[in-house]
Amino acid sequence: MEVCYQLPVLPLDRPVPKHVLSRRGAISFSSSSSLFGAPDPRQLSQRRGAISYDSSDQTALYIRMLARLSCGALSADSGTEKRVHRLLSFQRYLHSSRLLRGIPQQIPLHILDEDYSGQARCMLEKVGNWNFDIFLFDKLTNGNSLISLTLHLLNQYGLVDLFQLDMVRLWRFLVLVQEDYHNDNPYHNSVHAADVTQAMYCYLQEPMLSKSLTSYDILLGILAAATHDLDHPGVNQPFLIKTDHYLARLYRNTSVLENHHWKSAVGLLRETGLFSHLPTEDSLNMERDLGSLILATDISRQNDYLSRFRTHLDQDSLCLSNCSHRHFVLQMALKCADICNPCRPWELSKQWSEKVTEEFFQQGDIERKHKLEVSPLCDRETNTICNIQIGFMTYVAEPLFGEWARFSDTRLSQTMLGHMGLNKASWGGLQQEQTAVSEEAELSTADPDAGESRSKEIPQGSRES
């Protein structure tokens, strides 16, 4: 049986009523469709403001044709300006790649259903493994890793039945959540959200938490992980403040992005009515607690949370039968999940490091282009991925995961610390190699006499040392 919410098809010679051009487009959900297959573009609108992507909808077809023509007319420079404008205004633009995001060209969907979805299911059987490859899982789910993973975890915990969640509303909520991540961000995209959700699940399985957390706590933890960077623009808070962005003014320069992520998540919860069947007080409490978890991911408040966590551990005062203490531990778990990339195996950690550094550098490029002061870590001319990662591990990740290991001294905690030590050493080795290559290049381009003189001084200095 298929449940569809489809807007009417209109002739091209008739004006489009305003109610048709609503903020949301058509959406459909088939209970027989594959969980891991890509959402069918004939059933599911891929972006906001869409009318329908049913091939039989002539109005939608006409609009798509106009959009593609306009996109094709843009030059490379205008495309760059458009991306900058979108970043600064938080407006949605209909790119042709957005319309077909997650739908591979020239690959029949039945092949994906039979082959790729089977491999994805096999991966989900080991979703609690710390070496879970979220990049591979995203490919196997056809770009829908966040939807597939989150829905699987909610079902695995029995939360859908326990909280009587309507499957159509839940599906629509998860689709909108995934769509609201900007997948043109190198790092802060839906794959990062899926990775954080998988890490959060690993922490929820730890003995200290699994025997203490309630179903309500687990639901909050999963939803907070999935939505913690919702609608992230790909720039940091200082950028929004110094450009006088409206979000910075709205939230008075305090946890600007985190407040926006939280409010965006609440907006989708209310829009889809996911918790509308609950008493109003319960749904409001859930929204408030969700915000408390998401706000804890503000890296500028890292020391505040770490100091409080360390004090609890020093005094042995954490009591997980206490609701507020459980919530605080959930905050710390989400903070760990959010920045756990240095603790992953090298093959995964290196990919994440490259992606986050590229996002930093893209912000720096924008700042330089618009004559703004380039933010720390964002200048590709003075920073390298090696020194950025070594500094992050030393001053942010190691202190946090060291305290987490004190709280939950398990095999997983020791594995994370072990990976981080190896990864830090690897970046250090790469940094030495780059330094040596850079010095050699400088010598080769220098004056021959000066190069010869310096080459004689190097071994002499080595003997003196």
Category from helices, strands and their pairing:
mainly alpha
Number of strands: 2
Give the radius of gyration. 25 Å
Count of helix runs: 21
Span between termini: 79 Å
> How do the helices and strands follow one another from N- to C-terminus?
EEHHHHHHHHHHHHHHHHHHHHH
Sequence of strands across the biggest β-sheet? 1-2
**Most strands sheet:** 2 strands, antiparallel
Report mean pLDDT, rounded to a whole number: 81
How much helical structure, as a percent, in the residues?
A: 55-70%
Question: Could you walk me through the main structural features you see in this protein, from its secondary elements to its overall organization?
Answer:
With 465 residues, this protein is mainly alpha-helical. It has 21 helices and 2 strands. The chain has a two-stranded antiparallel ribbon. Helix 9 crosses helix 17 and helix 15 crosses helix 17. The termini are far apart. 35% of the residues are buried.
Topology of helices and strands:
Layout: E1 2-5, E2 27-30, H1 58-72, H2 76-89, H3 96-99, H4 109-124, H5 134-140, H6 145-156, H7 159-162, H8 167-180, H9 190-204, H10 207-210, H11 215-227, H12 237-242, H13 246-250, H14 256-272, H15 280-295, H16 302-315, H17 323-338, H18 346-369, H19 385-407, H20 411-445, H21 448-464
Helix pairs in contact: 6-8, 6-9, 6-11, 8-14, 9-11, 9-17, 11-15, 11-17, 14-15, 15-17, 16-19, 19-20
Notable traits:
465 residues; two-stranded antiparallel sheet; 2 strands; globular; disordered N terminus; disordered C terminus
Short overview:
The chain is an all-alpha fold.
